[in-house]
């Protein structure tokens, strides 16, 4: 199968429990660490902040910061 999105950052709309691909790609970047996250490995994101996270610890830290700033 021909992969037309190899090496490209995807643009996603993060929904509650799922996401919608707006621009095809094979990865997104963690909003906190900048780490590359393969689309197939994406497990943590915030639909409120429209951000992806590399792991649960990073997501929890970001949520705590956002709550403290009144963003959530």
What attributes characterize this protein structure?
alpha+beta; two-stranded antiparallel ribbon; two-stranded antiparallel sheet; 18% helix; globular
Give an account of the 3D structure:
It is globular, with a radius of gyration of 13 Å. The protein has one helix and six strands; from the N terminus they run E-E-E-E-E-E-H. Helices cover 18% and strands 29% of the residues. The strands form three sheets. A two-stranded antiparallel ribbon has the order 1-2. The protein has one domain (11-68). The chain is an alpha+beta fold. The protein has one helix at residues 56-68, and strands spanning 11-14, 19-23, 27-29, 36-38, 44-46, 51-53. It comes from Sphingoaurantiacus capsulatus. It holds the Pfam family DUF2093. InterPro entries: DUF2093. This is DUF2093 domain-containing protein.
């Amino acid at each position: 199968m021909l992969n037309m999105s190899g090496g490209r950052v995807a643009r996603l709309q993060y929904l509650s429990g799922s996401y919608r691909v707006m621009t095809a790609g094979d990865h997104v970047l963690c909003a906190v660490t900048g780490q590359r996250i393969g689309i197939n490995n994406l497990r943590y994101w915030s639909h409120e902040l429209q951000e992806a996270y590399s792991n649960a610890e990073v997501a929890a830290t970001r949520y705590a910061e956002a709550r403290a700033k009144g963003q959530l």
